[in-house]
Every structure is written in structure tokens, then in C-alpha cells.
Amino acid sequence: MRSPIPSVVRRIDGAFAWLAIVAAALLAVVLATQAFARGWSQSWFVVLVYLVIAYLVLPRLHTALAAVYLPDYFIGRTRTREGILGDPVNIALMGSEEQIHTVMRDAGWVLADDLGFRANLRIVVATLTRRSYPNAPVSNLYLFGGRQAFCYQQEVGNSPGKRHHVRFWRTPDDWLLPGGRRVEWLAAATFDSGVGFSVFTWQVTHRVAQDIDAERDHVVGSLGPAARVDVIEAFSAGYHSRNGGGDAIQTDGDLPVADLGSVVADEPARQETSRRVGRVRPGEVVAGVLLMAIRPLAAAALVLAVVTGVDIAGLLGPTADTASLATPGVRVVLAVVFGIVSLFWWVLTLRVWLGRPFARFTAMTLSTIGIVTVATAWIGGTESLTMQSGLAGFALDIAILFALSGAESRQWTLGRKRRRRRSPGGVVSPRA
User: Fold this and answer.
1) CA atoms within 13 A on the CB side of 61
2) In this predicted model, which residue has the larger pLDDT, 213 or 316?
3) What does the pLDDT look like over 299-326, one tens digit per residue?
4) pLDDT tens digits, residue range 376-394?
């Protein structure tokens, strides 16, 4: 469902997103030119070029284009974070969340961890060392405008590289399947057969086995006698296609519907997980805030350098007047200026962390100004972009713009604003 964002705000957000694509592409060009500018000593820049293209340019380009050519309504397919068609929806359920957790756990399935830095690092280490990680997180897929409420999985051979997994989404209130049948949950079950590269974004990802019907039947068969299952035959036409990573998939189009009404559920306090979806601060916001924090830290370091008498002429550029910087009056002025800049960025960073839309727009605007200024000077030949001159700041502005202009950052910030309006006194739970 398309969120009720005013058209002007949506267009401005779209402009920031497109600018981030162009800026990241320019950064890739700059890094490519620097890769062999000094011989083989900087050839490792090729790795940076790959990372920029695979994790910034291509994903955001797919996001922008998919918003144009893919319909924004239910077609029996999930979507990836980039907006590409993901795994097919191949299971429907009736029952409460507690009943789903109970029946899945009793069937030997394990609840997957949420994505996060620690979980991502752990799955990389587990995959490389071939160690078991039964709670390994899965990538987010989206349906009804939101990511999966939760996911269950089963490792194969004690390796996170191969696993059965099934994601679950709660359907909107009063929502009906095409054909008029009411269900409360939809799920997408696939089997990860190994690790490889995405065809569409070149990112490292899991590869999915082609026969997704076998995985669907595996999940449904594991639910046990407490689940009453009937099948909507030919819910969709059988088809061959590709998922969000470019893997070939095929299905007969049947949709089993599992009724869990007779399942005796465990206590709800332990099991409710879907209520956190949409309230948890997304990784894009966390990354953007961490990147923004570099600026006030740098300004604070300059204040400390000025106060302690450290020579900062080299940091202020080749045109800085070394003699005047040595006078106490100038140092006091610089300390005050850098202190104000540091305070401003700390306040702005905090407000972005708290989900204030105006702060997010301000941060993106300031980063855009920095990007355009440096890019114009570089293209015009009046300024160089190297490791010694300007490249780090240019890349930082692009990274901030990329993080804050993402769809998850936008949706979380606007959703948090709406929750403040609905909450008594405008207070939102600190866990959100």
C-alpha cells in the first residue's frame, strides 16, 4: 500500500534518492581513476569501486526503476529491499501469531534472529568456518509495504549456507485474497542451496533452489495434525521466473491454506514479535546517525586542537594564514566557531536519531550542498579528489545522503511522526 505522504514531500524525497544514485556513481568514477593513478599502490581501490557499485549504485537504481514499472498491489510476489520481485507467496494461514509460533517450534523450526551488525557478522563467520548458526537472520522481503513479521528456519548439515526458511506477514484488516477468501497470514517458503552473487546487484547473497513447491510442501507437511490444510488449486498460473537474487524458480501456482484454530498456543507475552515491525529503528537510520556523528567529532577535535595550540593550518587548506592562526584572538574565534558547528551537528544528529522529519531533511540538504560543491569543483578542474584532499569528506556526504534517503529511513521517520500524534502527549515508547 502506498503510504499517505504528501506529493511534494514524496517528490523531494525522490529527488534526494536520485541525487544519491548520481553522486555514488560519480564516487565510483573518482575511485576508479584513483585506483591506478599512483601505480599499483592504490589498486585496492578496485574493491571500493565494487562495494560502491554493488551496495550503493545498483540497489538504489533498482529501487528507483522498480517504483515505476512494478505495480504497488498484491500480485502473489514479495519484493526485495531494492523493490525487485522476490520470493513467491506460497502459503496462507488462519490463526494467531502465538499459534504460528507454537506450531512452528513444535515442528522443529527455529525463529531467525533479526538483521543487525552482530547477527550479520556472525553469519559471515559461521559460513566461512562452516559452523552452525541455527538462528541465522534472513534478508528482509516486503509485502503490504512492510518487511516480514518473523521468519522460521531449519539448518541443513549444520551450515547457515543451506537452510529451509519461511517468512510470515500479517495481512491487513479485512483484506481478502484474489477470489474473495479471507486469510490472516501469508508466507513465502524457499530453500537456500548455497551462497553466491546476486545477478541484479552483484551482492553476496544466498542462492535459492529452483523447486519452491518442494519447500512449500515441506513446510506445510511439518505443521502436523493440528493444522487443517486445504489447497486453493491454480491460485496463480504455474510459471518459471527469477527471484530477487536472480535465481531461477518455478511453481505450479497452488496455494495451501493452513487453519491453526485448534492449536493450543503458548503464552502471548513470550511470543509476540510482529508488533515490533515498523517500530524498530532501521539499519539505514543507525548508519546515517553514526556517519553524521563523525562531523561533530571532527569539529570537537578541531576545538581541542585550537585550545591546546596544535598547528591546524594544514587541516584548513593550503590558503590558510599560518601566522594569523598563531595569534590568541584568532584561536579563540576558531574555537568558538568550531564549538558551535560541533554543537549544531550533535543536536541535528540526535534529532535524526529520534525520527524528526525536518532534521532528516536538513541533514540530507546539507550533505547535498557539500556533494554538489565538491563535485562541481572537481568536474571543473579547480579541486582534486584524492585520499589526501577532499575524497573522505565527499564520500562521507554521499554515505549520509544514501543512508537517510532510503525507503526504510523515510518510512520509519514518517511512521514515527504519526505514532507521536496518536500517542497521549505525543510520547513514543523509547524502545521504538
Assistant:
1) 15
2) 213
3) 777 666 666 666 555 555 555 454 555 5
4) 988 888 777 776 677 888 9
Give the cell for residue 228: 487443517
What is the Cα 391 distance to its own chain's centre? 25
- The model's pLDDT over 279-290, given as tens digits with 9 standing for 90+, comes to 678 888 999 999
Tell me the C-alpha to C-alpha distance, in Å, between residue 343 and each of 302, 305, 339, 396.
13, 16, 6, 19
Q: pTM of the predicted model, to two decimals?
A: 0.78
The phi and psi torsions of 319 (rounded to 5 degrees) equal -90, 0
Cell numbers standing for residue 64 = 528507483
Q: Whole-angstrom Cα distance, residue 321 to residue 303?
A: 18
- Say if residues 189 and 213 touch (Cβ distance below 8 Å): no
Instruction: List the grid coordinates of 40.
Output: 599499483
If we measure between CA atoms, which residue out of 405, 397, 411, 413 comes closest to residue 16?
Answer: 405
**What distance in Å separates the CA atoms of residue 287 and residue 113, rounded to the nearest whole number?**
19
CA gap 376, 390 in Å, rounded: 13
Residue 37 Cα distances to 52, 121, 388, angstroms = 19, 33, 13
Torsion angle of the four alpha carbons 292, 294, 300, 306, in this order, in degrees rounded to the nearest 10: -130
Query: In whole angstroms, what is the distance from residue 399 CA to residue 377 CA?
Result: 19
